[in-house]
Design a protein that fits this description.
9 helices; alpha+beta; 4 domains
Length: about 350
Amino acid sequence: MDRTYRMYRLSARRSAAPRTTARRSAGRRTAVTTAAATVVAPLLLTTGAVTPAWAHGAPTDPVSRVSACSPEGGSQGSAACRAAVAANGAPFTAWDNMRIAGVNGRDREVVPDGRLCSGGLAPYKGLDLARADWPSTRLSPGATLNLTYRSTIPHTGTFKLFLTKPGYDPTEPLKWSDLPGKPFASITDPPLRNGSYRFSAKLPADRSGHHVLYTIWQNTSTVDTYYSCSDVVFPRAKQADSGAGDGGSRETPARSEETATEKPAAEKPEPATTAPAESTEAPPADTDGADTDGADDAQAADAGSPVASTTDESGALVPLVAGGATALVLAVGAALFLRGRGRRSRIDD
């Protein structure tokens, strides 16, 4: 009996050992998981706080240099984009990440002259090349600008739009002195729709030729400020008739040609007024009883046409010649008749 009891106790202890081991393993896994969660959770929270700053943006209409020359922009094959990538040493893959932290409105102090289009950031230095062949957008002075700024995550902040001053030279590096002191438009917290901010502003009316639309987006939801250059082209201003500039020299001959073509048009009707006076001399010579009423109707119908008047002048010669021949025949006949009567009178005597 004692032996049987001892064997039962031994068997119970052996069966309980795996359960204890399993419990200990489960406890160890729980401890490891808890420790991992304790370490990773702060990292996840930190990452979550930074995530909005990962998604930025740039203007796509008017197209910005960084957007046009990016692998997604479609203009990376242009001469300007190839030169920018070569100067950069790398493609503009992170086209939406051109930002500076902690500027707080001190743009002119933080971003140096000649490096406005790159924001002074070395990975984007190719955007500062002074060229006149950047991909550009045509605009009209004084018109409404409809700007599209592509982004992926909403941010709050203010967009400030600058346009280079009249006389800007695109072959010179862009400097702060090329921009007015104040933006021509400021837009705060526009809604993000379909991955883009869209807003409108009235363009200055005194620009012509090649200019740069400089956009500053100062965030309030993050500490970042974004910079971008969009090349735009306005029609050349027309010059006055004084001939100053190419525009005046082109327009002045056009006006003189119009004037020259107007003068003959005014002179053409003059023969029409004189033609009826010449043709009215023909009816008195027509002694054959021709229908003079029909001739008068024809002259009245042709009075307004120079071509008809010249035709009437040549046609009037026919009745003149016929009338003259008839008069000559009658005169000869009368002379012969009188001569015959003279001979008869002499014979009778």
